[in-house]
TrEMBL record:
Database matches in InterPro entries: SpoVT-AbrB_dom, SpoVT-AbrB_sf
GO molecular function (one): DNA binding
A Pfam family this chain is assigned to: MazE_antitoxin
SMART domains: SpoVT_AbrB
Segments forming domain SpoVT-AbrB: 7-52
Protein name: Plasmid stable inheritance protein I PemI-like
């Protein structure tokens, strides 16, 4: 168990998140987390970054959207799979 001190920041109270938790969950400034509040208990859960598949992204393209010839045959170049 760890005891943290709440600090005032503007009109809110903030607490620091331990570096070990950040590293363990690959979190950084701008990362999103889920907060579940049940009575007097607050649970913070790291949310995984979404994984995108190129085929799924292409399937979401609106019909009639202009496409470059040969686009569908191009290999993935980023983190999509």
């Amino acid at each position: 168990m760890m005891r943290l001190t709440l600090r005032k920041a503007g009109g809110s109270l903030v607490m620091t998140i331990p570096k070990a938790f950040l590293e363990q969950n690959s979190l950084h400034e701008g990362s999103q987390v889920e907060v579940l509040i049940t009575g007097k208990r607050m649970t913070i859960k790291a949310t995984p970054r979404p994984r995108y598949r190129l085929a799924d992204l292409m399937a979401e393209m609106p019909n009639g959207f202009p496409r470059v010839e040969g686009w569908d045959e191009m290999p993935p170049v980023g983190l999509e799979s």
